[in-house]
Design brief:
By secondary structure, this protein is α/β, with parallel strands linked by helices. The protein has helices at 47-54, 56-63, 95-110, 125-136, 158-167, 172-182, 184-189, 211-230, 296-314, and strands spanning 5-13, 16-24, 34-40, 66-70, 113-123, 144-147, 197-202, 238-246, 252-260, 265-272, 279-280, 289-290.
């Protein structure tokens, strides 16, 4: 029987080796097929620091899933950032994406993980790498969540990465097609209809320009359009609904909800008024976590669960359809 709590592991892959920590909630029943969420920390953080600012372990306890936190090595990046701006770490079976995939496979080999319910999330550099991982391994990841990140392959060198953080990246339509091309090897292994995406960004983020949130949504819109076309969905189109909200004693936010022509939830973008470069809804005050924001971790899991339910519903025979306005 698995020991509950933190489980430490290490993998070796084409791109090198990394350690990780797996959170196994005490409430889990190993006889059941378990969802798995991979969470990638930002620069200077580690697994336990990411768990602290996100509060994701508590969400896992309440919702019955595993959380794995890969750790970047200082030898790979002095600031412990994931190297999302380096072409060696932007493709399948190479660099850090290969390591992240190996971590998923190792956790799956040791635990009863539901292969259709594996997700990836990240903040800042971790968010940028989460997007690369989702595009490189669509056969492994069923959805992606990003906080203060950037679009797919937004830069190809460090100086370019710094420029993207300040001003935004290349044409999202172009990057969307590039992400679709990057997905082909994974799609050949496992068919893919959609890639659900949820994004959080603060309007007062001075480290990563909020324009990057818009570009992530535009990029994945283009990628999902390509996926739909490959599936023969010529009528694919997205509708946007905007809902305003207010955290009691905290920040206001705008939640953009994107659904397809059949009402299937595909993407969300949360713009948080006054939030800096931090994880919103952190359970405790932290340099990289802000308690006054909406609870990103629980909303991420709600989104993945809802998007998954919609996709399952769309695969069933329908007697009638209605569009969500």
């Amino acid at each position: 029987m698995t020991k509950k709590g933190w489980i430490t592991g290490r993998v070796h892959a084409a791109g090198g080796s990394r350690s990780y920590k797996l959170w196994f909630p005490a409430s889990l029943d190993e006889q059941k097929s378990l969802p798995l969420l991979m969470v990638l920390h930002g620069c200077t953080l580690n697994a336990e620091g990411m768990a602290e600012i996100s509060g994701m372990n508590d969400v896992a306890e309440a919702n019955q899933f595993l959380v794995v936190y890969p750790e970047q090595r200082r030898r790979a990046n002095l600031m412990k950032c994931w190297n999302w701006f380096d072409p060696r770490h932007q493709i399948r079976d190479s660099g850090e994406p290969s390591i992240l995939a190996a971590i998923v496979e190792q956790v799956r080999s040791a635990h009863n993980v539901d292969a259709d319910r594996v997700y990836v999330a990240g903040v800042s550099a971790g968010g940028a790498m989460a997007i690369i991982a989702a595009a490189a391994y669509p056969d492994l990841f069923a959805g992606v969540a990003v906080c203060a990140g950037v679009e797919f392959k937004a830069a190809n060198k460090l100086s370019g990465g710094l420029a993207v953080m300040k001003h935004g990246g290349p044409d999202p339509a172009q990057q969307g097609r590039a992400a679709f091309e990057a997905m082909q090897q994974g799609i050949a292994r496992k068919s893919k209809r959609r890639m659900p995406v949820i994004v959080f960004h603060g309007t007062a983020d001075t480290r990563v320009n909020p324009i990057n949130a818009d570009q992530i949504i535009a990029q994945w819109t283009a990628t999902n359009q390509c996926l739909a076309a490959e599936q023969g969905e010529s009528a694919f189109a997205l509708s946007e609904q905007v809902v305003n909200g207010q955290v009691p004693g905290g920040y206001a936010y705008w939640k953009h909800i994107y659904t397809d022509q059949s009402g299937e939830l595909l993407m969300e973008k949360w713009m948080v008024e006054g939030l800096g470069h931090a994880w919103p809804g952190s359970p405790s005050a932290h340099k990289y976590g802000d308690r006054k924001g909406p609870p990103a971790s629980s909303e991420i899991w709600r989104f993945f669960s809802e998007a998954e339910s919609k996709q399952m519903d769309s695969a069933l025979p329908q007697t009638s359809q209605s569009k969500i306005e």
